[in-house]
Amino acid sequence: RVLRCGGLAAEAHTTMTDTSWTTKTAAAQDTRPVSSAVHTGYDAAEKTEDGIPLYGMDKELAAKAAAKRDPKKEQEARGWIEALTGMSLDGTLQEALKSGIVLCALASAIKPGVCKKASTMAMPFKQMENISNFLDACTKLGVGKHDLFQTVNLYENKDMNSVLLTLEALGRVASKMPDYKQEWPTFGAKLADKSVRHFDNETLAKGKAAQTFIGRGSTGQANQSGMVDTSRNIGKMDHVKGVEKLGGDGSVTAVGMGSHGHASQAGTVDTSRNIGKMDKVKGVEGFGKDGTATAVGMGSHGHASQAGTFDTSKDIDKMKNVKGDGVDELGKEGISAINLGSTGLASQSGMYDTSKDID
Predict the structure, then answer these.
(1) Do residues 74 and 164 lie in contact, with contact meaning Cβ atoms separated by under 8 Å?
(2) Helix intervals (H) in 219-272
(3) Which residue of 8, 152, 220, 270 is 20 to 30 Å from 172, comparing CA positions?
(4) Is the CB of residue 128 less than 8 Å from the CB of residue 151?
């Protein structure tokens, strides 16, 4: 038993050793790279202006933001902020605005008291709070929420282009503020002046009845005229001779006349082979042409009406053998005995016995 167990253990050890050797050999022969990614260390990695290394998605987003960056616009924003605040900005624009102190001063210069006093503490959450107070002031001044940047875009230098867009929107609104000084420069596009138009009732009524641009369509008409380009139409009759002004004078065209040459169906039926059924009948020349009734019209009784069509010689006179007073004159005064009924009246009067009715 001991030898047998030892033999099994030896066999198992040999099998595991062979499997391990086979795996190592296959791994040594497979020289394909695991991925196409290039791994770089801290020294070789791209870094932000703050010295933070960029990897993966952060690196791609930083590359997109760098492609949108406009150095000329940043210089204009720097000059505009320095003119309004009277402060000198050191370093890059992101470094100068990161603490939020300059931004709060900018909002207060445009409208005093619109922004909370900035904190001078260097702690990150205080500086980010200053940036948040500036964004709230921009909203109060009239900047749309869709024009505001996120705090992290400025503080961590994620997207300076969005910061410049917010400053441009603030510059447009600030130029319309009553406290904005004339000697200050402008930054961003100028807002259009409000132009209110008033119309009288007659003009408004005409406008309601007028055709809209959508109703007119691309042709500029309220119908389909001009929708079809006829400049390249082919004149199929241009090379046909003898058809000049055909149909222009109201006459029937060749197409309307058809193959028989008439504007009606005359001549469309060939009657040359018709059989004259009465040609060999004698005594019928001019028959029916003078307005008289024909033999067919008169019928078998010889009249042009129904007179004589019924034999009345055998009619039975049903009242001939009825005797009684007044029968001969029955019905001549207007109401017959039958019409009078059993009551002797021509109405329902007397049909009901009303002698026992209780009042």
Answers:
(1) yes
(2) 254-257
(3) 152
(4) yes
pLDDT tens-digit map of 335-353: 565 666 666 666 666 667 7
Q: List the structure tokens of 359.
A: 């009042």
Is the separation of the CB atoms in 66 and 76 below 8 Å?
A: no
Distance CA 308, CA 287 (A): 24
- Please identify every stretch of the chain with a pLDDT value under 50, giving residue numbers as ranges: 1-17, 19-23, 27
User: What is the end-to-end Cα distance of the chain in Å, rounded?
Assistant: 137
Q: Do the beta carbons of residue 165 and residue 146 sit within 8 Å?
A: no
Residues 245, 250, 251: CA angle, nearest 5 degrees: 80
| Six token digits for residue 34 | 């695991």
Among residues 136, 143, 131, 132, which one has the least CA distance to residue 174? 143
Residues 52-70 have pLDDT tens digits of 788 888 888 778 877 777 8
- Give the ranges where 46-159 is alpha helix by DSSP (H): 56-68, 71-85, 93-97, 101-110, 124-141, 151-155
Question: pTM value?
Answer: 0.45
